[in-house]
Amino acid sequence: MTYAIEASLTVALPIHGSDETFPVRRVYCIGRNYAAHAIEMGHDPDREDPFFFQKNADNLDPSGTFPYPPKSEDVHHEVELAVMLKSGGTNIPVDAALDHVFGYAASLDMTRRDLQGAQKKLGRPWEIGKAFERSAPVGPIYPAGEIGHLSEGAIKLTVNGDIRQEGDLNQMIWKVPEMISYLSDYFELAAGDVILSGTPAGVGPVARGDELVVDVEGLAPFSVEVV
Ligand code: MN
Q1: How remote is the CA of residue 219 from the centroid of ligand 1, in Å?
Q2: Are 48 and 209 in contact (CB under 8 A)?
Q3: Distance 134 CA to ligand 1 centre (A)
Q4: Where are the domains of the chain?
Q5: Which of 4, 169, 223, 225, CA to CA, is 20 to 30 A from 68?
Q6: How far, in Å, is the centroid of ligand 1 from the Cα of 29?
Q7: DSSP secondary-structure letter at 208?
Q8: What is the pLDDT of residues 83-94, one digit of tens each?
């Protein structure tokens, strides 16, 4: 069998210390997963049910450059820990969830905040604010088999050397195993799925020329230039 048109390539992300790459299937992103960020966005940080939106596999970009996207005057950084799955399923119990994790990476959930805000006001979906081209810069993946699982430790973003976002992974309202379990009740998770685990407080605008450095304790710093 041959395809009638050219098939798009599988997105493959680099793995630290390996010649192999990680093929991406789906990208799930949690909203408001650190209390201080929920408050800064005008929401109650109480533990209500989590909510997720999706980006596209080819929005993930390991290149280290972020082209300022069109149609926005207010593009924000959100520093996040990315979780890569090596297997999946449905109805995964919390205490078995980490068995499905392949590894972790530093990432950014770049957001056209003005477009997202306008969609929110209208009660419409957010894709144009979130799932645009190269909207998720992502650093090399560190296999859990080498570094263990990340449940605490500093998560930080500097812009041109100034600290803009700072938190601790232990401040997540919904922990990584809980997110995996919750998602698996609604979707069939599978190898290649990626979860962006939410951002601590301090989100703000970027400008062309900015140098963003994502620093998650346990991973090497990952630099992204806004171009
Ligand atoms: Mn986010």
Answers
A1: 19
A2: no
A3: 14
A4: 12-226
A5: 169
A6: 6
A7: T
A8: 999 999 999 999
